[in-house]
Amino acid sequence: MAKIDKDLRLLFVQEAERPLTRRMFLRRAGAAGLLVAGSGWLAACGGGGGDTTSTSTGGSSTTGGAGPTTTAAGPTTTRALDKQLNFYNWSDYIAEDTIPNFEKEFGVKVTYDNYSSNDTLLAKLQSGASGYDIIVPSDYMVTTMLGLGLLQQIDLANIPNVKNLYPRFREEPFDPGNKYSIPWQWGTTGIGYNTEKVPDFKPSWDMMWDAKYKGHITMLTEIRDIFAVALFRMGEDINTTDPAKIDKAKQMLIEQKSLLKHYTSDTYIDELASNDSWLSHGYSGDVFQAIGENDKVAYAIPDEGAVIWVDSMCVPKDAPHKYTAEVFMDYILRPDVGAAISNYVSYASPNQAAESLVSQEIRNDPGIYPSAEVSQRLQYIKELGDATQLYNAAYEEVKAA
Amino acid sequence: MIQKGEDLLSGGAAASAPAEPGLVGRGLARLRGRRFLVANILLAPTTMWLVLFMVLPLLVVLVYSFGSRGAFGDVVLGFSLHNYAKVFSPLWFPIILRSFGFAAVATLLTLAMGYPLAYFIAMYGGRRKSLYLILIMLPFWTSYLIRTYSWIVILRSQGVVNTVLTSLGVINDPLNLLNTRFSVILGLTYGFLPFMTLPLYASLEKLDKSLIEAAQDLGASRLWTLLTVTVPLSLPGIVAGTLLVFIPAVGDFVTPDLLGGPDQTMIGNVIQSQFLSTRDWAYGSALSFSLMAILLVAILLYVRKVGAEELG
Amino acid sequence: MRRRRDQRIKAKGLRVYVALVYAFLFAPIVVLVLFSFNNSRRNATWKGFTLKWYSALFGDSAVLDAFKNTMKVAIIATILATIFGSLAAYALTRYHFRGSSLYNGAIYVPLVIPEIVFGVALLSGFNAAGLGLSLKTVIISHVAFMVSFVIVVVRARMSGFDRALEEAAMDLGANEIQTFYLVTLPFMAPGIMAGALLAFVLSFDDFVITFFNSGVGNTTLPLKVYSMVKFGVTPEINAISVFMLGISSLLLLLTYRIQSGERRTVQEPDKG
After folding, report:
1. Is A273 an interface residue toward C (CB < 8 Å)?
2. What letter would DSSP give residue C40?
3. Minimum mean pLDDT among A62-76, B54-68, B144-158: which range?
4. Distance CA A325, CA A89 (A)
5. Which among A103, A371, B137, B207 would be 20 to 30 A from A330, CA to CA?
6. Left (φ > 0), alpha (ψ -120 to 50) or beta: where does A135 sit?
7. Cα angle, residue A363 at apex, residues A362 and A364 outer, rounded to 5°
8. How confident is the model at residue B212 (pLDDT cuts 50, 70, 90)?
9. Are A253 and A230 in contact (CB under 8 A)?
């Protein structure tokens, strides 16, 4: 591992210094020829066969145009890499120099826009072409988008660094073999709590039903996340499609409602920091932000189990610059790049080769990098297709109760 | 001198309006034809815009509303009324009632704050009128979200209000202000205050001050003058303001989201969640069209009753 | 003169009340400005004074781009919506024709549509029409919902319009266009200004509709702020808001100067 690591770093240094060394040039050229031909075909295909979509501007036509004329290797390669890459990511979720370094090294201009939730991202994509080349949905959302035909397959030949991933991230249940998604960062959904106000805290979801703390408990707004908490507490599978179990979870959540301050997916960070909320169902990284403000706040992964999530880079079906997107993904999977992101945003990196470069502080934090024993208890939320309606209906009853 | 709305709109109700006295002599039919033409030219940009970018897109959503949810949250087109049947599920009654209640209270509060404000600017603003108006708008040149977050800072248990009250010894334990009915209504009132004040100002500004002074010179009390002279004359402004506040307030979802608790869900949140969390666009569309229909009927009744001159 | 002084004294209660309303309007703004100087990554607690968020802001080209986009959209959309809306309001109050009552009712439709429905509907429409998303589509969609607000406000002003004034001008030999400029437009002006101010704020602060109908690189400030808020409100967001406030009040003051200069020459006569 260490050797690969060094090799890669060496490679990186070279690349950084001289944007296009001969070696890189040739190496990329081989794959690129194929890919460009491929993406040209895809673009043509998308234009003709796709439904209502029509890709926004010049981008796709350049790729499409380059396709047929490109020979397998040679000087045409530079054309393969588009001048432009449109990246749509969560905000505050990248190191400051990640994009500038990429732009410098590859001569690609990256347009970087942000969104704030999986749901809004999906709604926008679902209504038509967005013009983005890379998006970063979470695990179950990858399945949803696949189900809706919103993503296209990634060519792993252009992403040799995929080998840097931890084995578990190469075989994720929602996308085994990384055919459609390359993990970006991951974390868990647990409890952020105030050690002073909740002296009897124990790592259990029962805490979220403790009447002593009425009015100081918050839950997330995501339907499946909320139901996962109740199902964990019941000792059930969080992806159950058994109406009876979902109904029981619903009762449990209705019962909890009177104890809640509110449902929130963002304000709880401030509330934890200002001692307004004492027990918050929240994302690991968010709670760590609150800890940074208020040292009485702590994060726990309950014993009954917790949700693990992975945000992954995907290519929308009508992405105008697919090859460039793959080159970017490969760049992100470099150990130093991946580690720099983790060091900046304080989430765990799926990049095993980056592990030694991630700061001690983050790597040794069991809340960010859980122990093997805790990891056993982490479960993904799965997209359930039609059965999702069971949860939706139950949720509406909770909401209206 | 001010005239009441009705006389100049007298032609409105009946299409066969008599021509205005000053224009008698020109052919009636020609006049009507010409009027129609001019009106349409003036209306053309708005008509075009609304048809292309409002009516047509809404037809898409209307089609959605008869479909159903696919496995992954796509819309399966079809023709079924079951979404509309579900709209009237008793589940939503309390939420709809709450939305209308909150919006109504917020509308009254904005009126109570906005009317004196608009009156003051119109009557006593003098040359500083625009400045006063701009001062009203200034806070809204930030982001809605940020202003709402600022209210959180003010209202939370260790926030500005509670800190001041505790240090003054007025209260011992912090008041529970945030995530309550109170905080949602406060947020709505704050957010929509300009939508009340500006139309009120626009309609109060044209009042002739001498008329009011005349009433007072004749011995009318100030309250009496206000009720019998000023308010009736500014009725179009009141109608416009209440509509501009009430309608968006009913459908608001950000305020209850941020300032409300688990029991302050409004109909806007329900619709929002059909498009985002539960991703049942078909049902969300049906809910929206039903809400729109209810609101439009309410508006028409209201305008008929209170501000007959608003409709031609 | 004496009467005016009487009015002044009588209005004392009103003045106090109005001052309180202004205080209410500005309370959150004061908090916002204060916390933009907070030496902490969050708004949660006060941790000392700093200017670092402002320097971060001016180093952040993304924020400045977003500001540019926002202003571009808001200014163009406001101008279009104000012109369209004012003409429509004039036509609707001045002329009565077959279908005008239907039109009067239809004006409320855009007010009634839930934002998200409108956002999704427009996006589907743009896609069906093969229009790529850009700032243009954002402007188009803003105008579509702003026009109604302008019409409602301007119409409220117009409904008290004394048509005898127009007729007098015509009797004195002015043609219709002259009459419009010399009599009608000055009368409408406060309504148009109120409508434009509202329209501007609506565009400037719109998130939902902009989110759906903006293309790559069209981030506006509300989009920026909403995406940042996912991780809580940081003092940097406050600094952005203060920056927005600063720039916009500057612009407003400027227009105010120009306007009040004009008003003295134009509007005074019709008061007499």
Report:
1. yes
2. S
3. A62-76
4. 13
5. A371
6. beta
7. 95
8. confident
9. yes
As a dihedral over the C-alpha atoms of residue A320, residue A326, residue A328, residue A329, rounded to 10 degrees, the angle is 130
Q: What is the DSSP letter of B54?
A: I
Residue C201: what residue type? V
Distance of CA C134 to the CA centre of its chain: 22
- Cα A124 to Cα A194, A287, C96, C121, distances in angstroms: 37, 28, 42, 11
Contact assignment for C159 to B154 by CB distance below 8 Å: no
Which tokens hold the place of C123? Answer: 């996006």
Topology at the third CATH level for domain A187-309+371-400? D-Maltodextrin-Binding Protein; domain 2 (3.40.190)
The pLDDT score that the predictor gives to residue A277 is: 94
Query: How would you label B271-286 residue by residue, b for 16+ Cβ within 10 Å and e otherwise?
Result: bbbbbbbbbbbbbbbb
If DSSP states are collapsed to H, E and C, what string results for chain A? CHHHHHHHHHHHHHHHHCCCCHHHHHHHHHHHHHHHHHHHHHHHHHHHHCCCCCCCCHHHHHHHHHHHHCCCCCCCHHHHCCCEEEEEEECCCCCCCHHHHHHHHHCCEEEEEEECCHHHHHHHHHCCCCCCCEECCEHHHHHHHHHCCCEECCCHHHCHHHHHECHHHHEECCEECCCCCEEEEEEEEEEEEECCCCCCCCCCHHHHHCHHHCCCEEECCCHHHHHHHHHHHHCCCCCCCCHHHHHHHHHHHHHHHCCEEEECCCCHHHHHHCCCCCEEEEEHHHHHHHHHHCCCEEEECCCCCEEEEEEEEEEECCCCCHHHHHHHHHHHCCHHHHHHHHHHHCCECCEHHHHHHCCHHHHCCCCCCCCHHHHCCEECCCCCHHHHHHHHHHHHHHHHC
Report the distance separating Cα A238 and Cα A257, nearest Å: 20
Nearest to C25 among B131, B139, B244 (CB): B139
How many CB atoms lie under 10 A from the CB of residue A357? 19
CB A282 within 8 A of CB A192: yes
- Tokens of residue C25, six digits: 């309007």
Q: Supply the mean pLDDT for chain B.
A: 84
Tell me the domain boundaries of chain A.
Answer: 2-181+314-362, 187-309+371-400
Nearest chain B CA: its distance from C162 CA (Å):
6
C-alpha of A151 from chain center: 15
Angle at A198 between CA A192 and CA A204, to 5 degrees: 60
Listed residue (B207, B15, B26, B19) closest to B122, CA to CA: B207
Domains A2-181+314-362 and A187-309+371-400 equal at CATH topology level = yes
Contact B276 A119 (CB under 8 A): yes
Residues 6+ apart with CB under 8 A from A61: A43
Tokens at A23, concatenated: 């070696």
Provide the pLDDT confidence category of residue C10 given band limits of 50, 70 and 90: low
Q: Which of A334, A330, A41, A299 is nearest to A187 (CA)?
A: A299
Cross-chain residue pair B311–C141, CB shorter than 8 Å: no
Q: Does A130 touch chain C (CB under 8 A)?
A: yes
Top CATH class, C60-271:
mainly alpha
Model pLDDT, residue B122: 92
Instruction: Please report the domains of chain B, with CATH numbers, ordered by start residue.
Output: 14-59 (no CATH), 90-310 (1.10.3720.10)
User: Quick check: C128 and B60 CB within 8 A?
Assistant: yes
Q: What is the pLDDT of residues C157-196, one digit of tens each?
A: 888 677 788 888 888 888 888 888 888 899 899 899 999 9
User: Which amino acid, one-letter code, is at C260?
Assistant: S
Half-sphere exposure of A113 (CA within 13 A, CB side): 24
Q: Which residues make Cβ contacts (< 8 Å) with residue A83, sequence separation at least 6?
A: A107, A108, A109
Is the Cβ of A362 closer than 8 Å to some Cβ of chain B? no
What class has domain A2-181+314-362? alpha beta
Residue B76's SS3 state is strand
